[in-house]
Amino acid sequence: MERNIARLRGRLHGLGVSFRPHLKTAKSVEVARRAMTSPEGPATVSTLKEAEQFIAAGVRDLIYAVGIAPSKLGQVVALRASGADLAVVLDTVEQAQAVAAASRAAGMRIPALIEIDCDGHRSGVLPTDRERLVAIGQALQEGAELRGVLTHAGGSYAARGAEALQQCAETERRSVVDAATILQDAGLACPVRSVGSTPTAHHASDLAGVTEVRAGVFMFFDLVMAGIGVCQVDDIALSVLATVIGHQHDKGWILIDAGWMAMSQDKGTSRQAVNQGYGLVCDSAGRPYGDVIVADANQEHGIITVRPGSGRALPQLAIGEQVRILPNHACATGAQHRSYHVVRGTSDRVEAEWPRFGGWQ
Amino acid sequence: MERNIARLRGRLHGLGVSFRPHLKTAKSVEVARRAMTSPEGPATVSTLKEAEQFIAAGVRDLIYAVGIAPSKLGQVVALRASGADLAVVLDTVEQAQAVAAASRAAGMRIPALIEIDCDGHRSGVLPTDRERLVAIGQALQEGAELRGVLTHAGGSYAARGAEALQQCAETERRSVVDAATILQDAGLACPVRSVGSTPTAHHASDLAGVTEVRAGVFMFFDLVMAGIGVCQVDDIALSVLATVIGHQHDKGWILIDAGWMAMSQDKGTSRQAVNQGYGLVCDSAGRPYGDVIVADANQEHGIITVRPGSGRALPQLAIGEQVRILPNHACATGAQHRSYHVVRGTSDRVEAEWPRFGGWQ
């Protein structure tokens, strides 16, 4: 984890942009402190529960990067009143009007970023939609603050190879620069131009016009990121420690006490070249056996097999032996657990236990 | 939920077997008290954390129904020493020897049930494998207690229609009766013959030789169970309340603030006749719009669309409006939340908030 953080931080420093890590993957104050460039931020969150927890831990500069629902503005006002600079994100005039009205009612200018749709994968205003961008910006001016524009190249998760990822990064960059230009041309200041996804953050070669980069899963990485080519399997800093509880020798199955409750049901590698099932099986020191995966899972049972067609032999694992499973998706697997047991390298000595939180309110 | 519990309880009473609800779905003391036939049980759990929590709440008769790892026997002994009759499950001689050794060391006969493999879907001894059954039973005799045999017809989740489900139930019944007969013929008493899965529990017509039935997801039901034909959509007693946060009108998308973190990534209906995506969309009172689903999900974003090919119109839902999403798999969706907000019928008045727990230790 330390290596992954140092790598991306160094990269973004070289590109001359500030770094606003997304804390939704870790949901842990201890991890956040290691990921952020200062104890006060900046950082990104995906729920107001995260905002509340990190503000309580001293973070002062946050973007809540999921489109704001008007019913949540009361909590935003309360969190801002506690001394934190919490900004919201939106992509409609209705939301901008609600943020402006809440700002007037509270006597504070709530800062908002307009979400830009750079690749059609989810929410946001098209960077070419001058009319909507300006209408939102103007609606915010009625009491709130237009902080800037923000986009997330979620489509980069489906890209493969450095060239395609560089293209995603450039599309992401251009979308915020173009949108900011439209707003500025309409007389609306747009100081922040925020981009980010783990794949594009690791492949952008020019971030001219961008002020900050967000990324989350990079701290831990996972098999999906390894499958895209953003990291090596050896970079994956999150694993689930499981115990062998049975065998079905005739079928070539080893049963472990980690099912989907421990791994999550994320099968994100099933659409990649190498399907890792519910996770890649390593020895207890974290060394992959190679082509040994959790092929199926029930709530508390995992079924380990050799990857079909690989010709490998199943490792000999006795009842009670421990294995580590690398996850497809660190955000999803982390969310199934209440804390992290911190180990260094291949050591199995637990140096610390870091709590993580969940929930929304 | 009350109706679902009453229905299965009445059914099993009529079949003359006792009912040992599985508490892994709900992980809630409040739900458990309503599901169990007495405050002291019997009940089933999938983790020792569940055992610990329910024992602390007064439950006294529990089966931990995941194959026991020797390293967990210390905790089993401690929980039994606190006054609860906690039994373990196993399917190998190695486990039986470990349970017998732990029993001798603790000076208590730890009760164990031999898991039977009735349909090849997971763990267990084949009900025809006389040699292994007797060897396990004899190994337990060296200090532990052979409490009985147990099976779970997990294969019933892939069955369709009443006839196929009745056949699964009969196969499940016969597997424990056959295994118990083998053990008894070898001079090994086998008082408990435990079967269970929600589909078979609702379709068994004869449970001769069975002493108890387990089931878990029946309390809440879900879209997978509705797809199998075990319940109606109207029986589903668990939903996620979400808020509209955006639209992509050109694409026919409504965005909500419930993604896979709120719904889980269970896509169990994708292999059924009707694919419900990440969940079926209802109005805030729980009435389905019909053919409107959460078609895609990111961590905190859900994308609502009309089911392709249905010809339905997308409902008009403004920013801030609320919807309820019915889940594919209640066990998985429940696990994403820290408490239940209890409502009755179509009322939106929250009568109570029931905490739920997670984790393993």
What features would you describe in this structure?
The structure is a homodimer of 361-residue chains. With 361 residues, chain A is α/β, with parallel strands linked by helices. Helices cover 30% and strands 22% of the residues of chain A. Chain A contains 11 helices and 16 strands. Chain A has helices spanning 2-15, 29-35, 48-56, 73-81, 93-106, 130-141, 162-185, 198-201, 223-228, 260-263, 330-334; strands at residues 18-19, 43-45, 61-64, 85-90, 111-116, 145-151, 192-195, 212-213, 240-248, 253-256, 280-283, 288-297, 302-306, 322-326, 339-342, 352-355. An 8-stranded parallel sheet of chain A has the order 1-8-7-6-5-4-3-2. In chain A, strands 9-10-13-12-11-14 form a 6-stranded antiparallel barrel. In chain A, helix 3 (48-56) links the parallel strand 2 and strand 3. In chain A, helix 5 (93-106) runs parallel beside helix 6 (130-141). The longest helix of chain A has 24 residues, at 162-185. The two termini of chain A are 28 Å apart. At the A-B interface, helix 5, strand 9 and helix 10 of A face helix 5, strand 9 and helix 10 of B.
